[in-house]
Amino acid sequence: MGMFERDQQVFADAEPLDDSYEPEDIRERDDELEKYQRALQPIIDNRPTSNIFLYGKTGTGKTVATKFMLSHLETDAAEYDDVDLSTLWVSCENLSSSYQVAVALVNELRRDQGKDRISTTGYSQQRVFNLLYEELDRLGGTVIIVLDEIDNIGHSDDILYGLPRARSNNYVEDARPVIIGISNDFQFRENLSPKVKDTLAEKEILFPPYDANQLRSILNPRAEKAFHDGVLEGDVVPLCAAFAAQDTGSARQAIRLLREAGEIAQAEDAECVTEDYVRNAQDELEKNQLYEGMQELTTQGHAVLCALAYHQSLDEVPIRSRDLYHRYVKICDRLDADSVSERRVRDHLSDMNMLGLISVYERNEGLSAGRYHEYELDVPLKAVLDVLQSTNRFEEVAGIIQSTAEDNNLLQADLSAY
């Protein structure tokens, strides 16, 4: 017997439980898909098309719905000789400015033509924009540009001003750019510059969190394909759905929980996946989700987390948001990043509290100072620094914070409670 043997009793086909799996149909998003279809219909009719922005937390179906709709759009557009359609998809996960997004778009367009990539440095922003317009015009027709996780660009939103106006400003003649922006931040539009808000003329589609019934509907067909008959006990899928609904309402979380429960059962050579395996999987994933929650924060969210970690390294916690804000602005200045208002920093702190990353304390000092909140990390400082150091933009600052914490003997290396 070898160390590794193929599973014969739990998983029949684990692909439906993979993050990259694209289902044949999209469940529990009928209203959103209907709005999406109406927003895309002008492309088929050869009419002016509004930009489209999708908002919702991670795992609420924005990306999978976009891939589903664009796949159908491309197939249907091919039936019409007078519809010239291309799609371009760029993830903004590691892009923090319009300049970087424009470079990524140029290189994506050039890759399809087998042309040399352009460097991420050495060009002015306007030069990169001009190269982008040249590549778009060469392609011609309607070009749908999907900018996934667009909120990462923060206040550097010039590209959202330039692309929608490219045709009216005669930067392009043969191309009609249409932007589809996907954002995890419901407040993203509120932080755009006034000129961008006026220019975008976008359709907004909100993707709310799933409830337990919706998550069961999403999980059931995947479970039927993924597991051998009779392996799942009857309460497994409902329990996975309930755990995810109570936490984030994320289909991704529910699917990962089901897969993890199956993998634990497989490792123990069990014949069935039971509720106990789901509960064990939930404990395991909760630890991983804290890391993921930190990794998936926007650039602004990371800057706020960085500021809190700095005060944690000096043992200056819990700390008020107004004091935290001063450090946050200094970090943004050091990173050459735009800073947001103190109110938005509190919004980011609220999001981190919901993710279980920080603790919030309400203070009431009566008439003299009134009510206010104080904040501190609710996860080990070392875990926060590990995540920040794995993010290129924050690596240097995180290193400084780590040195400060070591000097003050405040760096907790033991993550056993995590």
From TrEMBL:
Cdc6 C-terminal domain location: 305-388
Binding positions (ATP): 60-64, 210, 222
Domain AAA+ ATPase: 48-206
Entry's Gene Ontology molecular function annotations: ATP binding; ATP hydrolysis activity
GO biological process, one term: DNA replication
Chain segments carrying region Disordered: 1-24
InterPro entries: AAA+_ATPase, AAA_22, Cdc6_C, Cdc6_lid, ORC1/CDC6, Orc1/Cdc6_arc, P-loop_NTPase, WH-like_DNA-bd_sf
Keyword line: ATP-binding, DNA replication, Nucleotide-binding
Similarity-based family: Belongs to the CDC6/cdc18 family.
Protein's job: Involved in regulation of DNA replication.
NCBIfam families in the record: orc1/cdc6 family replication initiation protein
Name of the protein: ORC1-type DNA replication protein
Species name: Haloarcula nitratireducens
